[in-house]
Amino acid sequence: MRKGKIMPAMAVAMDFFTVLLILLKCPSLLQSGRLNKENGESRGSARMSINFVGFIAKPKITITKKAFLLSFSNNTKTKPSTLTTFCSIRCKELSCNRMSNQNQIKVLSQLLIMNKAFRSQALVSYVLQRELPSELFSMVAEEDSEDLCKDSAQETLERITKLVNDILASDGSYSDSTLSTDDVVKAIDCGKSEGGSQGRHWVLDPIDGTKGFLRGDQYAIALALLDEGTVVLGVLACPNLPLTCIAGGSQHSLPGEVGCLFFSVVGGGTYMHSLDSSSAVKVQVSSIDNPEEASFFESYEAAHSMHDLSSSIARKLGVKAPPVRIDSQAKYGALSRGDGVIYLRFPHKGYREKIWDHAAGYIVVAEAGGVVTDAAGNPLDFSKGRYLDLDTGIIVTNPKLMPSLLQAVRESMEEKVSSL
Fold first, then answer.
1. C-alpha 261 chain-centroid distance
2. Whole-model pTM?
């Protein structure tokens, strides 16, 4: 277990493939959960099996086509060993402390993010397709290969391809084939799906909170599953999130054990466990109903959310605690276990929310008993494609505080408009 200072993300970064393996070696997360819109299982429904190889065992997920059951099984008696992240970024060539040119640092940082995001997206796409051969595969993801296919990026593409093949070979189950650069590009571009209200679509953000990632602060790796436009499953990995409560603190250099994974299935609740452990606990949002005792989360970057509007809402509501500002969907994870009570997100005019920035976090909070709506109190609609067309912003809290929060939001927004 990692203790003390958070490991700098630029030194070692956990990939989503690794996170999937951690998740799937832990059958105690959910023995079973019914994801259904109908009662019972329809006859003749086709069954799919996802078999990922874990570090210790081969747990199995079985999903039936319509009213589908998600279950984990693990026959091994071997105790989990200490997790070794076999896929990491070691930026030996990025000696940023020696650089005087800030533009160089910015460019290298962007290259680092691109490298990791492409690699993670390619791995998730490839493994899901290998394990779901009979399923019409659709994935809505943040990245595409346009920049990677430029002549100037061929060396980067070759490096990413080598890393992907090394990871697959080290696992053992996927060593029967070696991916070409074209295969990697194809896997990445499987994330170009538009999603929508028909069929099933995986939703992936390979690195959510890129600035937090580069600073060594909070970032998340998020995967969700849409079924007929409804989020039915979510996995949210937060490698730098402490296991202890962060309420009243900050995301910087937090002491104690770090690395959390949240897992939710519709109707089955939300569970959290350490990235280094197979034991899971069911989590619930805070039940605080007195705004004066509440704390709230908002985006770390002022460019991502209007901090002045959030402050006005907090004052009207009677919140006395200062905001806890952290990057990424880690806010959803922290809120789901009761670290805070409210999450406010009000992007600047013209910004369109993407579904991969919220799908996994949404179900993690909802299954923990929370409520996630737009600024007008409408449920988030993930059935419209790659974007969330919503009213102004996103607010999250428990059912007890939502009515008064909506009133404070409405009054603050009216004042803001009248002052223009």
1. 9
2. 0.78
